[in-house]
Amino acid sequence: MPAMDLDIRRLRYFVAVAEESSFVRAAARLYMTQPALSRQIRALEEDFDVALFVRDRQGTALTRAGRQLLEDARPMLAAAVALEQRVRTAAREENHFTVGFMPGVVVTPIIREFSRMAPDLRVDVVHTSITHQVDYLLDGRVDVCYVRLPLPPGMFEVVPLFPEPRVAALPSEHPLAHRKAVGIDDLRDIPLLQDPRDVPEWRGGASYSPAAPGRDLSSLPVTIEECLEAVASGAGFYVMPSGMADFYRRRDVEYLTLEDVAPRMVALAYMEHRTMPELHKFADLSRRMLGPVPD
């Protein structure tokens, strides 16, 4: 069978329908009519010769083939955006270098030293987060980024720097909050406010049930700020890197060292196959200034 030429535009339409679970909402999001959107999805299904959605009175659901396409389409679309961004970036002035950083990783001394080493280079610094660290690298907004592992495999050059202990955020009025450290088993009866895969050592059974009316009871807070608000309200606990805890200090939340939870590795990352020489110089400097001290 000859290779199929995928239409990136149709993939975007497909992802919108999959995320909205509705042709009506997806059409509104895409600023197009529902019949036009349906025709594009039907053409995509004909390209693959499979059904991607099941349509009934309950709504629009993905088929098994549709779920597989959604899993693969998202990184493909991100890569297409990144390609466009990197081409545009390559056309700007050559002496431009952008570094992404996140709370809890002190980069000022490294930026200062790198600027001294490369006086003809314009160095910009952009704030990011764990949630967006991959996006900033993929779409070219940053050339390099300080990240917390793991990252998706096979996409980035990664320079491990140092392991960062993790802490449990608890409401300041919780009976355990007076401690400086706890074991993860001490928290087994408290809901975990994040994907359990983030904390594989946790064996608790309590589930998060937000009290806000009309909210999906299976939903979890997304941003750090939302998670800490949920912690402060007594909804559960949240595990985070200690450096981020230092940044997000608040009186209604206490941070307890977790004695038996693996640390999160802090690293520097950039896209594979990039040949910009400044990337390697910056990586070497970061390794010297943030990496493990030689014995």
UniProtKB/TrEMBL annotation:
Pfam families: HTH_1, LysR_substrate
InterPro entries named among the record's database cross-references: LysR_HTH_N, LysR_subst-bd, WH-like_DNA-bd_sf, WH_DNA-bd_sf
Keywords, in A-Z order: DNA-binding, Transcription, Transcription regulation
UniProt cross-references to CDD domains, sorted A to Z: PBP2_LTTR_aromatics_like (cd08414)
Segments forming domain HTH lysR-type: 6-63
Top-rank lineage group of the source organism: Bacteria
Family: Belongs to the LysR transcriptional regulatory family.
This protein's name: LysR substrate-binding domain-containing protein
Organism: Actinoallomurus vinaceus
